[in-house]
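Example noted here:
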Amino acid sequence: MKRGTPWIWLWGLASLAVPAMAQVTESPQTIAPGHFLLKMDVVSVAVDQDAPGGGHYTGVGVARTFVSAGLTSNLDVQVGAQLFLDQKFTSNGLADRSSGLSDIFFRTKYTFWRDEATYTEMAVMPYVKIPTGTDKARSKAWEGGLILPWATKLVGDVEARAMAEVDYLRNANDNGYDTNWYFSGAVSRDFFKTVGLYGELTASKSSGGLPWAGTLGGGATVRLSSFFWWDFAVYRGLSHGAAKWNPVARLNWRF
């Protein structure tokens, strides 16, 4: 690739596409005190995403892992990292590629509203990202944001979730920060106590000029026990700012 590849642009794209997560919309429920939950996206692939200047971005994330620990009945803490990230940018027949360990995230979740009569909950999740990754697989800047997840029960044992998020990300000129607004919603239903199906819609827009990114997808959960289950999902990009396809496989282990 020619010298001067806009890697800060690539990180803007990566923040919108790779690694995407199975069931992007967070749950407002916290982990019970003294218990832990491990979520690992075993593999997440963003296929052929349009990049500024007419190029294309493709990324593969392996073992994006978050571990949550319950502190009280409405508070938990979380730490996460992308254990391996491979990114490729192509333009005019030339390519540039990087891979390595991505950055570390620290989050906490506080469920501040719980209505048992309507099975409705809402939480707040501040987070910070520390630039600890290797080479170009990291953004080289501290970033952070705030997540507001909400959930309720509908008729027929259907669960509805929604999430609003604001992120403060390093800008394309690497001299300040842009605001990224992110929204998602999902509906899900369990069948036979072992299999669940869900559909999900996401949309995001940055104040820094990156194109808006929207996805529509669905997936299935397969519960092997009350402590271990799989989550498989596929998302289709709805705009130039999103990957055309994004399949994800996640394992969940509660202990």
